[in-house]
Design a protein that fits this description.
single chain; 4-stranded antiparallel sheet; 11 helices
Length: 301
């Protein structure tokens, strides 16, 4: 179990982290989400010993992280930490050796990950000659090449094309299947929603929502209803008591129901205007959940 427990970090009067805590189970993929400046990178840097927490602790298997245990973490910083003059395969062998692999094992791992991440034809090129997307793939390979026990990745999908995204997603799922806890931050919430077992949303240095996407949705359940009546006149739902129209476009209407409002009364009103082709509670997307969680009112609560 990877545990982030009560992390606090301040730079002068700027309190970057204010009691951040979450856990990632073996084989779980955890999406760490937040606006720019929310504290995601600082949290990851503390885990890797690149910044010191004012309070709190990061633990792996119940023990505080040390220099030795950090060698078993595959880490990808948001800023590229590569040597531009080195060839791709030489660089990967170097990083694998730093993490404790023997020479033959490091070379085999480097060959595997260049092939796995679509870098085989670039293996003998210097990193500075690669496109930004391919440099990102090399950075990812460097995090994976040592067969780590834990993965901590800061914006790993940034700059990747759809093929690169799919390749990385498959590689991360493969790591989860062998029991590795994976933490990654991303602004691409559609990917987080698709890939992650659990999500933590960070705002102003605090975790304001956490759990599976289903659990976060359950907290919002029963609030919005989608009704499609192709021939309905505009504004038909506005007259229904306890209903607020969220959006309305060409007969496709999203409604928010006040507590105690009878959805069957809404259905009856819709049927009175024409043929209803869709009537269901609407599940919010992760983007909508994120917006609600980081709103000023939610953060202040």
């Amino acid at each position: 179990m990877l545990e982030f427990d009560g992390l606090v970090k301040a730079y002068g009067d700027n309190r970057v982290l204010d009691g951040v805590g979450f856990t990632v189970a073996p084989g779980q993929m955890f999406g760490f989400c937040g606006s720019n400046g929310a504290g995601k990178t600082t949290t990851m840097r503390i885990a890797m010993g690149l910044a010191r927490a004012d309070a709190g602790q990061v633990r792996w298997q119940g023990t505080a992280l040390t220099e030795a245990t950090r060698r078993r973490i595959g880490y990808m910083p948001e800023e590229r930490g590569l040597y531009p003059k080195m060839k791709v395969v030489e660089q990967l062998v170097y990083f694998a050796r730093l993490h404790g692999l023997g020479s033959a094992e490091a070379k085999a791992a480097a060959e595997h990950w260049t092939e796995r991440l679509g870098l085989a034809e670039k293996r003998d090129q210097r990193v500075e000659k690669l496109s930004l997307g391919n440099q990102q793939r090399v950075q990812l390979a460097a995090a994976l090449v040592s067969r780590p026990d834990v993965l901590i990745l800061d914006e790993p999908f940034s700059g990747l094309d759809p093929v690169g995204v799919d390749s990385l997603a498959d590689a991360l799922l493969e790591q989860c299947h062998r029991g590795v806890p994976v933490v990654f931050s991303s602004h691409q919430l559609d990917l987080v929603e698709r890939l992650c077992d659990a999500v933590g949303i960070l705002a102003r240095g605090r975790i304001v929502a956490s759990g599976t996407v289903s659990e976060l949705r359950a907290a919002e359940a029963g609030r919005q209803l989608r009704v499609v009546v192709p021939d309905a006149p505009a504004g038909w739902a506005g007259a229904v008591p306890g209903v607020r129209v969220v959006s309305e476009q060409r007969g496709d209407t999203v409604l928010e129901l006040a507590p105690g409002t009878d959805d069957q009364a809404v259905l009856a009103a819709a049927l009175a205007t024409g043929r209803v082709t869709h009537f269901a509670w609407r599940e919010p997307t992760l983007v909508e959940l994120f917006r609600g969680a980081v709103s000023d009112r939610a953060v202040a609560a």
